[in-house]
What does this fold into?
Amino acid sequence: MATAVHHAIPIEISEDRLRAELILRRTPAESLTEDNIATALQEHNVPITEEVRERVKQLLALAETKQLPRDRFLLAEGKPAVQGVPAHIELAADENDKDAHAEDGRTDFYQSHIRTVGEGEVVGTYFAEEPAQPGVDVHGKPMAGTMGGTSVQLGENVKLAEDGRTILATAAGKIHLTRQQISVLAVVEIRTDVDFSTGNIESPTDVLIQGTVRDTFTVRSDKSISVRGAIEAATVEAGTDVEVNGGIAARSQGQVVARGQIRTKFCDEANLKADGDIIVTRQSLNSHLHTNGRLMLPRGVLLGGYAYAREGGEIKVLGNDVYRKTEVAIGLDPAALVEAAQVDQILRKKREAAAKIREKIQPLLSQLKRLNPQQRERATELMYQADEIDAQVRAEEADKQKMIASRGPTETPSLFITSIIYPGVKIIFGNKMTVFRKERKGPIKVERRVVNRVEEICIVDRSSGSVTTMPTYDYVPDTPDEKP
It folds into this structure.
């Protein structure tokens, strides 16, 4: 009889294993005894500590006075792990750059700005790492704390002052801050525009241009390129990052290429290609953007043109209300689909050739004993040729799959729209696409996921968590020379 009663006491453990609650709406009043509750807790492997005993006494007192809550009662509570805070850096205020700070006063590391310092000058403030603190779940088992990111380390040409917090430059140069490191880079400085007075620039080290890179000129560096002015219809190529204080107004000529990040205030009819992130703080208009990292316009507008971001990205406003053609591709590079289709055509022809050879020698093989030595030799040669073609097909098919894998994202990518996405915008995920037919307000996340065993493009409302499946179509990409 006792067993039947205590089984009527439902205890629910939260998904994070930090709360054990008794579900009162499903518990008969006569089942609420100290022994029955203790038995139910033991069945769920919840230790009965002094704190738990006090909670049980409170529950039974409420039951006796008929003041029980309607839904549930907390019996046991764990201690959550505390996430660690990685070492981070706050740059010193730059009086010469009003755009260096967001509206709330915090330093905005997405903002396009170039900071230079002299030897001995203050670079910023270093905040040491705060280690994670472990917790314990309602079962009494430890829960490991995690770090909330990667700690920033001190790189070249910087050091800590005696106070252990102030960061000083040990050499003159440009402040270079990434998610992993802060350093001061020695630079080749061009104090004027890059024009006929300077000619083209080729440098094995970092380049700082105080003016503008004018039409038709070229700047190349094995390291970073920083431009305080703007980039016109010019060619700029960097072995690491490109930073532009002004913007890029290219009139559909020239290009900016970086093996690291590209950061700029705006780009207008520009062609940008980066292995790292592309970060635009104001606006991208009718430009061709290609990044193997993330496309970041967290406070900006992307209007017109074509953008590809392998690892996804974040945009405040996408498109506009006059249906200007705007395409954004996420994840697998559509150009890889073109190359894969070209390989498939070649492989299909090779398979057909091997099949024809086997079809030709089949009659010979069926009467092998009647063949003379020359005919047998010929049949063997043809069979070897067919086998060799098959081996080539397998090898080229494997190379194609490796190529596709190398051109895809490292994690599941998504596109985060913080404010609004307008009608007419086309979003592409690999071989699937959707076109927005009506305005959608942010914050929303656009991603590709499996719905009813079918790959679909979906919208996730970041406020409510609701998921909307978009009309999804097969995407057939243009050939590379059809892109701007």
